[in-house]
Design a protein that fits this description.
By secondary structure, the protein is an alpha+beta fold. It has one domain. The strands form three sheets. It has a five-stranded mixed sheet, with no helix packed on it. A three-stranded antiparallel sheet has the order 4-6-5, with no helix packed on it. A hairpin with a 5-residue loop joins strand 1 and strand 2. Helix 1 crosses helix 2.
Length: 130
């Protein structure tokens, strides 16, 4: 079993957030890693719902903010719906993933978690007027 560090960074490399997840299999697809990450962050939010959700992708009916998403009112979030949004965002270059020192480009690509213990998620933000 592997312990993996999930880290969010800006496009300039500034760390935004980081946490570890233990007990993962030695090899997982990028799709499974994204789904696992989303399930974990939604479970953390749902345990203590508030008006702010700091996750990989924006839930429906939420407003984007500098460090997360503001919900109109605290509510439970469906992790499977969020995972589907995250998969679509990955495919449309809404964010990219670095495993160790390389960018992974396919949802079905297998990542060796015994070698690549750091997964960096870099969210791309659309420029105003561009």
């Amino acid at each position: 079993m592997a312990t993996v560090t999930f880290r969010d960074e800006t496009a300039t490399g500034r760390p935004v957030s980081e946490w570890q997840v233990a007990g993962l299999p030695a090899r997982m697809t990028v799709r499974d890693l994204i789904r696992h990450r989303v399930r974990e962050e939604v479970a953390r939010y749902n345990a203590r719902p508030g008006s702010h959700f700091n996750g990989l992708v924006r839930p429906e009916d939420a407003e984007a903010e500098v460090n997360g998403h503001r919900l109109r009112e605290p509510r439970g979030i469906d992790w499977e719906g969020q995972a589907e949004i995250a998969e679509r965002a990955f495919l449309s270059n809404g964010f990219f993933v670095l495993a160790g020192d390389r960018q992974v480009e396919d949802l079905d690509e297998v990542v060796d978690l015994t070698a690549d213990l750091d997964l960096v998620f870099i969210k791309l933000v659309a420029l105003v007027g561009g």
